[in-house]
User: Fold this.
Amino acid sequence: MNSETIMEQPIYMDNAATSWPKPEETLTAMADYTRSVGANPGRSGHSMSVNAGRVIFDTRVGVAELFGATNPLQIIFTKNATEALNIAIVGLLKPGDHVITSGMEHNSVMRPLRAMEQRGVEVSVIPCSPLGELNPEDVDRAIRKTTRAIYLTHASNVTGTIMPISEIGKIARGKEIIFCVDAAQTAGVIPINVEEMSIDLLAFTGHKSLFGPQGTGGLYIRKGLEDEISPLTMGGTGSRSESQDHPDFLPDKFEAGTSNSIGIAGLGAGIRFIQRTGIEVIRKKEQELTTLLIDGIAPIPGVTLYGCLDAERQTAVLSFTIKGMSPAEAALSLDEDFDIMSRPGLQCAPAAHQTMGTFPEGTVRLSPGYFLGKEAIEKCILAVETLAKKGKEAHS
Assistant:
């Protein structure tokens, strides 16, 4: 799909929420699965069921290769990163445990952590700079004898700021602390190697930069760590059906019930698109678009940008506010007057906005994707400039 095709459609700048459009491969794989496979994987011995299981396993292999996991069975599928993070948090922690997280986390981390806090888990939130940056030394200083795990986003969904994952991974591994990374914003666009980065648990979603459909995601679990995590759901797995006890091995332990096979087929196709295109190519394109967006909006009077504003140090996300206009008003005008899709408000990350000083109104977030053209960026810049003038008139 080229930029000319995209320009005939609305300018979609909400890829940090979910990527759109999807590669043709994703759509084709889901249609082919429905037409030609369609059976329940792992539940029957007939050829269609076997083929369904093969689709699931092939996608598991693709995810493992993408993240540098040595064994595909270390990848479990969930319906999104939120479910994966709940397994990694609720399924792991016990009363008396101490955990560390940052002031830039999404509610998919903060809400289960706060729930566990009510059950006796101690939570330390390490402050970040107003740009969203985290100092690894601050994390190191917060470690206690009772520290069980560190939960950290790879990149903020509000500012795009990329966290020092490798450095913190080394700290955690050296002190035998479990390190869980929320890769919802980075999987598929920034290289991740769980072995080299000392990651024990990696939560990912399929519907963002992995170019899969909504309702897909998963969790990488370091070998042996599955013994320390309780499943959130138990039931049929298609394995050891003679027993009424739930399986204790991967991936079955965490994949009870019929899987979203059609979605996983689409996810596998999205990953193959990434592997064929190259993460470096995708990342470079998004960096170019981000730089154009920052350089074009930064000089506009009345507009305040947030984050490090450096495409090398962030994902393709730009948050801003306009003087004299609420984020909700600005986003509504972008949609209705300019056909530009954005995300206003707190973006499900109130802790990040408290760090940035934009709580409680939040910001307007623009997040370009790989399929967007430069012409769309130029239209966004002109639209923001128009709104800034409008805001100035309303404020004067």
